Amino acid sequence: MASQRDQVPILVAETDDVRPFARLLRGIGLKHHAAMTISNAGFEVTVEEARSMCATAWIPANLFTEFTFTDEDPACFEISLDALLQCLNIFGNAGGGGAGAVPVVGSGKKRRWAGEGEEREEDDGAWRGKGRERRTGMRLTWLGTGYPLSILLRDDAKGPVTNCELFTLEPEDLVNQPFDDANRTNAQSAWFRDALLDLPPSCQRVTFRARPQGEPVTDSRTTSVRARKLAESGSFSIFAEGDFGTVQFDYPYDAEVMDAFECDEAVTFSYHASHVALLGRAVQHSAKICLQIETTGFLSVQVMMPLAENQPPELNNGILDFKMNALEDDEDED
């Protein structure tokens, strides 16, 4: 019987810099275990929160300098996302993830995300270009079902090398229901990120409202001039109420902010504030979001990472997808 050393792995994924890979995994690190699916297209890593919220990181093969998967069918197993992120940051070069940018609302308790230690690590400067930075290279291999995930890590080009192995388990069933496109907003991430950071810490629900072009705005909190502009263009609004007041953000369809806005009928749905706040980390380093709401209130928020310089626009550097149901006791309001 051949030893593991002599066997040919069915998966090989190499990169000179683990930060983009770690950043996508950290964006869904709200749970410490995840289901990982591998195919020729790359990785699909999924976590669930109390079976009411699902978060998936789509990590494309083009994110790696080499990616090979030889099985005909996709493979799926459960791993410790917490352990994987700690391995990737074993030399301290994978970035701390900016935990301070995640709003704490609803429960009032700070969550320990996968990959974090007891002390909050400093955010990396990968996107700001501050001098020459040390990088961690990675070679990830897998021999197949029943074998561990092997991760060879090198600190910079001539630094020390370490090898980590993570056990793989049979995955649990996930409630990752399909999504039917309905009302859709494509926009720059900055406005959504700023709105999340301004949510009242004591709010229990966050309300999303979409109005089509020509729909009158009767909200008493909106001035007549503003209401007329929102009605003329169509709009998307975010509303939350806390112990010391309310916040409302109104976004008319503006080509400078939104790439697309599709709304056939007015919809209003509310969601757990603690679930919405979990998007804060995902949008921190993102370029765009695609927010979609079904007529039933089922919400999907896709967060897209920025393209590298000279990268073809048809490629992507990863997408984070969050799905959640609306609160059941909520009814549409105008």
From TrEMBL:
GO terms for cellular component: checkpoint clamp complex. InterPro entries: DNA_clamp_sf, Rad1_Rec1_Rad17. Residues 110-132 are annotated as: Disordered. Keywords: DNA damage, DNA repair, Nucleus. GO terms for biological process: DNA damage checkpoint signaling; DNA repair. It is found in: Nucleus. SUPFAM superfamilies: DNA clamp (SSF55979). Its main location: nucleus. It holds the Pfam family Rad1. Belongs to the rad1 family. This is Cell cycle checkpoint protein RAD1. It comes from Vanrija pseudolonga. The gene is RAD1.
